[in-house]
């Protein structure tokens, strides 16, 4: 195998394979967020009271830890699944001709040990709400990176802007507002009742005030997205951009409905978990919007390594 030219070695992984593995990476990063939410909502955040071991004497959950230990340890095991998918993505990208995807693949992989270390700090600090927030936000960054990698793998490189520059700047503003919504959302969570363990601390901030601030930023986000969608239709912008903006708005509205429902029903665990899944979807669809405003580098389909390599030179 090593004697073959580099071109043939890269041809061992097709663009379709890269895209499929990259999609699996998106799904894995999203699922780890949802399962982590389930750990917190069941009060199992300290089911394994230490890190990297589950207890001082065991790497695995012991019978004495009961259900909470099993739930927390199960979530830790999922990290190994996520790591395997990230490694598979990294290998697939580096064995393909898509040099332009390598940086994203590396970032996606390096985020896993960073996330694991931050998770360890979170446990060792007794679920400090600020480290819990950082843990969640890093997951959102990884979801965004994985989504961008997957979307770019479906086209031969990144081309020119498809919309007017003010519209592109508006999409960047929407992405920044999404980030603000996520950050404030973690502050709301840190001041609310679902701490992950009865002994875990809270931020001490007023939950109602934080919830109102969160709602205000959400209203700003929806307003910006509506403005973009109207402007795109008024200027007959490309369909891929209009669809991306439309779908993001639909997800935002659905997330808003869930957010209000959980607030007025005293934060039932099922709705909170659904709201966390919605945060993942908003991150995915925001990444899609940022991707959509630029066209492919070529009109040629991603049919094989040779095509992709020619485009990325």
Question: Care to describe what's here?
Answer:
The chain is an all-alpha fold. The protein is 71% helix and 2% strand. It contains 10 helices and 2 strands; from the N terminus they run H-H-H-H-H-E-H-H-H-H-E-H. It has a two-stranded antiparallel ribbon. Helix 4 (102-124) runs antiparallel to helix 5 (129-153), helix 5 crosses helix 9 (269-292) and helix 7 packs antiparallel against helix 8 (239-264). The chain is flat, with a radius of gyration of 21 Å. The relative contact order is 0.14. The model is unreliable at 1-5 and 305-313 (pLDDT under 50).
Features:
313 residues, mainly alpha, two-stranded antiparallel sheet, 10 helices, 2 strands, disordered C terminus
DSSP strand content: under 5%
Question: Which word captures the global form?
Answer: flat
Quick one: biggest sheet?
A: 2 strands, antiparallel
Number of helices: 10
Strand order of the largest sheet: 1-2
In short:
This protein is mostly helical and 313 residues long. It has helices spanning 6-10, 15-41, 66-94, 102-124, 129-153, 165-191, 207-234, 239-264, 269-292, 305-312, and strands spanning 158-161, 294-296.
């Amino acid at each position: 195998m090593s004697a073959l030219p580099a071109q043939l070695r890269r041809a061992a992984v097709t663009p379709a394979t890269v895209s499929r593995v990259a999609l699996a990476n998106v799904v894995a990063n999203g699922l780890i967020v949802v399962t982590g939410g389930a750990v917190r909502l069941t009060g199992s955040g300290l089911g394994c009271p230490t890190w990297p071991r589950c207890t001082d004497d065991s790497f695995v959950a012991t019978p004495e830890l009961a259900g909470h230990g099993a739930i927390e340890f199960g979530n830790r095991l999922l990290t190994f699944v996520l790591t395997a998918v990230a490694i598979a993505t990294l290998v697939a990208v580096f064995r393909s001709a898509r040099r332009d995807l390598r940086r994203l693949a590396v970032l996606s992989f390096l985020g896993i040990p960073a996330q694991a270390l931050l998770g360890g700090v979170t446990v060792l600090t007794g679920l400090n709400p600020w480290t819990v927030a950082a843990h969640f936000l890093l997951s959102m960054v990884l979801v965004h990176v994985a989504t961008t990698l997957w979307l770019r793998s479906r086209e031969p490189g990144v081309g020119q802007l498809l919309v007017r520059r003010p519209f592109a700047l508006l999409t960047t503003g929407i992405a920044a507002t999404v980030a603000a919504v996520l950050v404030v959302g973690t502050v709301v969570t840190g001041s609310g009742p679902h701490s992950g363990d009865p002994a875990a601390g809270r931020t001490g901030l007023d939950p109602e005030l934080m919830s109102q601030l969160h709602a205000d930023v959400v209203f700003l986000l929806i307003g910006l997205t509506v403005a973009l969608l109207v402007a795109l239709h008024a200027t007959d912008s490309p369909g891929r951009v209009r669809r991306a903006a439309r779908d993001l708005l639909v997800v935002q509205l659905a997330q808003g409905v869930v957010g209000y429902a959980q607030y007025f029903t005293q934060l039932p665990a099922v709705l909170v978990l659904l709201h966390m899944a919605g945060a993942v979807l908003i991150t995915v669809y925001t990444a899609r919007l940022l991707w959509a405003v630029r066209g492919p580098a070529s009109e040629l389909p991603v049919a094989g390594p040779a095509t992709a390599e020619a485009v990325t030179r």
